[in-house]
Amino acid sequence: xxxxxxxxxxxxxxxxxxxxxxxxxxxxxxxxxxxxxxxxxxxxxxxxxxxxxxxxxxxxxxxxxxxxxxxxxxxxxxxxxxxxxxxxxxxxxxxxxxxxxxxxxxxxxxxxxxxxxxxxxxxxxxxxxxxxxxxxxxxxxxxxxxxxxxxxxxxxxxxxxxxxxxxxxxxxxxxx
Length: 176
Description:
By secondary structure, the chain is α+β, with helices and mostly antiparallel strands. It is built from five helices and seven strands; from the N terminus they run H-H-E-H-E-E-E-H-H-E-E-E.
């Protein structure tokens, strides 16, 4: 039988660690607008493998105004673009389906969902939401984020970036 004093001690310890793991959970995931350190947490969250080409991209950062970190998650190749200041300003993907954008977009995911819903309502009003076959392309933008997605069965691609975080001299077309 566990003494009540010992039980209270373990409950306090459990509460302390439970509270801090809950409070810090959002900080452990990388996201668009996050920092370079958070990319490893993003990779773990998506259960992705880092690609060997990432090291080469780091060397190229001497001549380019950004670095590119690549990973593969569930067959989808994801590239995260990092500015010299260390913030993730863009991402791009291609593969048989879209990646988990709730993880990759982080705080911008709610803006993405609102923009997507608005786009779908606009298409519905124009009568173009059903009966479409073949590749479909969507360009969504909100106040803080720009997203482009396209593809068809087993071949999807997309990109997202935050205009205010783009390094000087970098065009949005370089995020691919």
